[in-house]
Amino acid sequence: MWTDRFYRAVEDAAPGLAPSRSDDALDALRDDLNTPLAVTALQNLVSRINTLPDGADKTNLQAELLAGGQLLGLLGQSAEAWFRRGVDAQNIEERIAQRTHARRERRFADADRIRAELAAEGVTLEDGPEGTTWRRA
């Protein structure tokens, strides 16, 4: 879904990042409310964000994407809230804790089973140095 792509492009934006004018999206909407062209403009911003090299500053593009999204009534919540919508967060956190415990006890089959169950429910786990995070796939 393209909305997921939009949220992925801004999920690592600084908290409280102020939207900055999105000329392409605004121009599209001024053209007889050309919503498809405005969405295309936002998709182009996402592509530009996603093709930046690692470590590059994407703040201006993210701010422009947020502004364009606001024009269309999109991106009104945090990326975290968007990717966790419609799921029982407490249940998932409990299962992640069970998986972490199984991994510590070297019960990798149990840990893999929990990961597979969550994946089947549309939940993606990401293991990192600070622990396991999750998002709706």
What does this structure look like?
This protein is mostly helical and 137 residues long. It folds into two domains: 2-77, Four Helix Bundle (Hemerythrin (Met), subunit A) (Up-down Bundle), CATH 1.20.120.640; 89-136. 58% of the residues lie in helices and 9% in strands. It contains seven helices and two strands, in the order H-H-H-H-H-H-H-E-E. The chain has helices at 2-10, 23-30, 35-50, 59-71, 79-83, 89-104, 108-120, and strands at 123-128, 131-136. Strands 1-2 form a two-stranded antiparallel sheet. The N and C termini lie close together (11 Å). The model has no long low-confidence stretch (mean pLDDT 90).
Question: Residue ranges: pLDDT <50 for 5 or more in a row?
Answer: none
Q: What's the alpha carbon Rg, rounded to whole Å? A: 18 Å
Instruction: Please write the string of helix (H) and strand (E) elements.
Output: HHHHHHHEE
Q: Can you identify the CATH class of the largest domain? A: Mainly Alpha
Give the helix tally: 7
Strand order of the largest sheet: 1-2
Residue share in β-strands: 5-15%
Largest β-sheet summary? 2 strands, antiparallel
Number of structural domains:
2
CATH superfamily of the largest domain: Anticodon-binding domain of a subclass of class I aminoacyl-tRNA synthetases
Quick summary:
By secondary structure, the chain is mainly alpha-helical. The chain has helices at residues 2-10, 23-30, 35-50, 59-71, 79-83, 89-104, 108-120; strands at residues 123-128, 131-136.
Strand-helix topology:
Blueprint: H1 2-10, H2 23-30, H3 35-50, H4 59-71, H5 79-83, H6 89-104, H7 108-120, E1 123-128, E2 131-136
Antiparallel strand pairs: 1-2
